[in-house]
Design brief:
The complex is a heterodimer of chains A (about 110) and B (about 250). With about 110 residues, chain A is mainly α. Chain A contains four helices and no strands. Residues about 1-5 and about 40-50 of chain A have low confidence and may be disordered. By secondary structure, chain B is mostly helical. Chain B has helices spanning about 30-50, 60-80, 85-105, 115-135, 155-165, 170-200, 205-245; strands spanning about 15-20, 25-30. Classes of the chains: A mainly alpha (about 110), B mainly alpha (about 250).
């Protein structure tokens, strides 16, 4: 509370105040330490479970891009075949498929964080 | 001595059963292994949970751990609403896991190294997502393709990209599992082939053969990891896709 009281002699009361304050500070410190310890361990545990290994993650991301491009190209060829507008369907859907592949990767990479 | 690393993936027709519209429906070695997987998983789970002990024994622990594991994964990614899909996801996980693990036994056939099998599983997930999404959310399901906060003039570009991204899911979902299993088994076979080729080259070759032998031992351990990991990845992706069906709109 007041530093003056401490200096001025009412030593007993000031002492208990100080003790209570330091006890509270200590409790707060303990609680903060516990919370801080709990928080980071929450994150990495989740992360370790979902990524498990870089090898799997790399394969996962690469198959995401490839899938987007392949589906885009396939859909483009189909549309060309149906509508007879070759090569425009392939060109447009291949580009869109590439964009979709990049979007897939961005999503699955962002899901980790 | 030549060893064909692809030979292990050949489908052999064990007995022709019936023909349907000109297509022969046969009982193949792939079908035999699928049957084995289903029988093994069923016996394991039914047998393990039969005692219903409060303090689980070893087998019951295996069953309980796998159940808890899939249930936690599903609850974390879809919330309580997704728990009605637990039987579906659990079945997929156990099937893929045991297909991968049984495939690691020498001379056995790996069901998940066939694209048609993984594609069927991935398409089943895809159609469950689409049908349940439309059934539960109606046309709101289409909000999945319209991310919020995008200016209207970008929509003609964004919506096709989102649509393609959605359509590419079963492809990456199935190819990932298939490619992992195929590549792993080919690598194992090639290195095992080196052992035989070197050992056939005389006494000096025996020492040389030790190197690929160590490699095969380590690769087998890696493949064990990959087998479990890919089953897990398949299950968690299923959960993520199901989450889109339950809560469309990011």
């Amino acid at each position: 509370m007041s530093d003056g009281a401490c200096d001025n002699g009412e030593g007993d009361k000031a002492h208990t105040d100080e003790a209570a304050l330091s006890a509270r500070l200590q409790r707060l410190g303990e609680r903060l330490a516990r919370d801080r310890a709990a928080r980071p361990s929450d994150g990495p545990v989740e992360d370790r479970a979902t990524t498990a290994s870089g090898y799997a993650r790399g394969l996962r991301l690469s198959s995401d891009v490839v899938a987007g491009v392949v589906v885009g190209a396939g859909l483009g060829l189909l549309i060309d075949h149906w509508l007879g507008i070759s090569p425009w369907g392939l060109i447009i859907f291949l580009l869109l498929g590439f964009a979709a592949g990049v979007l897939n990767v961005a999503r699955s990479a962002a899901a980790k964080n | 001595m030549q060893i064909d690393p692809i030979e292990q993936f050949q489908i052999k027709n064990l007995m022709p059963m019936l023909s349907m519209g000109g297509h022969e429906i046969a009982f193949t070695n792939s079908a035999v292994y699928m049957l084995i997987i289903v029988v093994v998983v069923s016996t394991l789970l039914i047998g393990a949970t039969a005692p219903r002990a409060v303090v689980p024994g070893r087998l019951q622990s295996v069953a309980e751990i796998s159940y808890e594991f899939v249930a936690t994964t599903l609850r974390n990614s879809t919330g309580a609403e997704g728990m009605k899909f637990l039987p579906f996801v659990f079945t997929l996980f156990m099937f893929v896991l045991f297909a991968n693990l049984i495939g690691l036994i020498p001379y056995s056939f790996t069901v998940t190294s066939q694209l048609i099998v993984t594609a069927t599983l991935a398409l089943a997930v895809f159609f469950v997502v689409v049908i349940y999404g439309f059934w539960k959310n109606g046309l709101h399901f289409l909000k999945l393709f319209v991310p919020s906060g995008v200016p209207w003039f970008f929509l003609p570009l964004i919506v096709p990209i989102e649509l393609l991204s959605f359509l590419s899911r079963p492809v990456s979902h199935s190819v990932r599992l298939f490619a992992n299993m195929l590549a792993g088994h080919i690598t194992l076979q090639v290195f095992a082939g080196f052992i035989i080729m070197l050992a056939g080259a005389g006494v000096l070759g025996w020492f040389g053969a030790a190197l690929p032998f160590i490699m095969v031992v380590m690769l087998t351990a890696l493949e064990l990891l990959v087998a479990c990991l890919q089953a897990y990845v398949f299950a968690i992706l299923t959960c993520i896709y199901l989450n889109d069906a339950i809560h469309p709109g990011h």
